[in-house]
Amino acid sequence: MFTHCFKINDTSSENKINHVSNVEIALFIDQIKNNIWLFGIPSWLFGITDRSIAAFADGYLSPVDIFQLFTAFFFFVSWLYLKPEESFNSNDLVPSEYQEYLARTQANKLQVKKLHMISQEYILPFPYTCQIYHLLNLKHLETVHNFSLNNLKIFQISHFQPTSTGGIIKFQTILDSPANPLRIWRQPIVEVDLILHTPYTVELSIPVYDNKRIIVIFHAFPLNDSEHQFFVDIYSDLEWPKPLLQIILHFASCLTLFEDLPYLKALNDKNIGRLFNLSRASNHETALLFKRFVELYGSSGEATKLLEGREES
């Protein structure tokens, strides 16, 4: 999903990186299978959680409830055992290509594991729509996170591209305060990427220095009309001591969430559903990605289709 932003130091394959081969096709197929499998895990967890809440809502478990919970848990465990392995073997590729395929597959797995820094998980007492609106509105970097980002400003929107399931927006940020500590390791003006991958997944890609990046993957899943589950995963290729970087990133993530809470509460107190009506969505360039979300997943008055879709799953 995001590893293309990092440079993988696989010297054994650099000589063949510039041409399409059977190895490229094999790796692409494996990546698709792995992405589908990874997306299925939180989907099944949400389904089990949703069924459990529904089963215990009336204070007792009926035989039907027990059967449904057992079935959901059985399929979830089965899904875990269905983790895709390498889909090609020595009979599918010539020996040299197969050796390259094995080497590069292993390198990719090790690289992703090495780049992963921290994971955080929360259940927040606010509608999922509040979180999505917040994540996709660029102006919130200047307002909601004014303290943690020390007066960081959006300089201009440099690129916007809709995709079949979301969109990509690139914007330049400027460090407005001369005392901003971020000046120690980044240029005053840098281009940041914000990507809507699915209605539940948003990626924030931040350049740091010397082509190094910090990538934050947000997963937001609606639990019901008033709660959502929120996951934060951070990856980086910064060559800092990993324990130190993990402490910094944990602190930064907790600080930004602390800043989010009052704003999410304020959104919850308003009629947030009206913002998911395309005729009411803002046309400002900083809200282009949110408007794209509304085009794909919004509805007239309330963004309820996603909640209904999660419940049916």
Stretches with pLDDT under 50, minimum 5 residues = 7-20, 89-95, 300-304
- Tell me, rounded to a whole number, the average pLDDT: 76
CATH architecture of the largest domain: Alpha-Beta Complex
Per CATH, the superfamily of the largest domain is Naphthalene 1,2-dioxygenase Alpha Subunit, Chain A, domain 1
Structural class: alpha+beta
Bulk shape: globular
Fraction of helical residues: 40-55%
β content, as a range? 15-25%
N-to-C series of helices and strands: HHHEHEEEEEEHHH
Q: Write the CATH fold name of the largest domain.
A: Naphthalene 1,2-dioxygenase Alpha Subunit, Chain A, domain 1
Roughly how many Å is the radius of gyration?
Answer: 22 Å
Instruction: Characterize the main sheet.
Output: 7 strands, antiparallel
Strand order of the largest sheet: 1-7-6-5-4-3-2
Number of helices: 7
Under CATH at level 1, the class of the largest domain stands as Alpha Beta
Termini separation comes to 23 Å
Q: What is the number of E strands? A: 7
In total, the number of domains comes to 2
